Amino acid sequence: MSAARKSVLVFRELPDDQLARIAALHDVVVANPRKPQQKAAFEAALPAAQGLIGSSYKITPELLAAAPKLEVISTISVGVDNYPTAELRKRGILLTHTPGVLTETTADTIFALLMATCRRIVELANLVREGRWDRNIGEDLFGWDVHGKTLGILGFGRIGQAVARRAALGFGMPVLYHNTRPVDVPELAGRAIHTPLSEVLARADIVVATLPLTEATRGLMGPQEFGAMKPGAIFINGGRGATVQEPALLVALDSGRLGAAGLDVFAVEPLPLDSPLRLHPRVTALPHIGSATHETRQAMARLATTNLLQALAGERPEAVYGG
Ligand SMILES: NC(=O)C1=CN([C@@H]2O[C@H](COP(=O)(O)OP(=O)(O)OC[C@H]3O[C@@H](n4cnc5c(N)ncnc54)[C@H](OP(=O)(O)O)[C@@H]3O)[C@@H](O)[C@H]2O)C=CC1
Ligand SMILES: O=CC(=O)O
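^ inputs. structure came back:
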């Protein structure tokens, strides 16, 4: 006997092959609430929904109250800051996510951003593109070396460690990391040292944040922390925007305390047009593209779909958040 079909609400576009896997077993509504013309369909589908799959939308306790049959939310992301985890636990709703499959790609992006920021790649490529390359560039447009510099990493999980491997093994960079606990990474033995935050900030030439957004990390980088960084240091954020107090980052840039910043994530996304970070001459800003390659987004969609189908079948999903 085939299992009963359930109701699935897809709240962000899924590749066709993954949508087909779900539709073969369950009844599917696709409605992206971030698109104003689809919001009503999203809300109308909530009361029947037993599974939700998507990303980049804040799921609130009020929204959960409108979805009393919900069994699982499968987010197509590793970060879970858009979800009320305590309320989900209270309601017995599983939350699954996509760790691992995006780690190396996100580390590639973060390292590319680090290189681009230190070597002023975007600014200087624009100089050529705009026909302003009319002489050999001088000291005013020189960048900063990357190889051999001391790298500080805030949040030494999957992505932080992948950044550290690139830095320590590829660029000869000593790594100091701030994390809840020391982590044993055999290939980085002696090259990545668990270090108190204040010391990481005081000693690192380049600081990379790969932190999740939690109550403990919200606003972690504020005036004191930026003020404690080495004069001229570089700050890169590839974790979540709200772990940084953006006004404090701007003060640090404008006062010359920081040399430059490279940011893939922002407190508000998409970055508002009037954000001073958008046009700041010493900020390299990306539109949250850590995992945005064809291969990795496909792998994330596949894992998120597998997680959803396993949960709806009463099986233990491959990647349960917190489990
Ligand atoms: N820019 C982008 O496109 C992307 C951004 N991300 C972001 O990167 C984050 C990290 O992903 P990933 O590496 O896979 O996650 P992990 O859970 O593997 O790593 C997070 C690390 O941060 C540590 N940590 C948590 N809270 C604190 C704290 N208060 N102080 C110090 N360390 C802390 C964790 O320690 P412990 O394990 O002990 O809690 C863990 O080691 C995601 O949560 C997401 O927000 C992810 C993918 C792409
Ligand atoms: O920001 C991306 C994620 O997967 O989390």
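Residues 78-79, 99, 102-103, 106, 155-160, 178-181, 210-214, 216-217, 238-240, 264-265, 288, 290-291 surround NDP (ligand 1) (CB under 6 Å). The mean pLDDT is 97.
thumbs up if we can close this ticket
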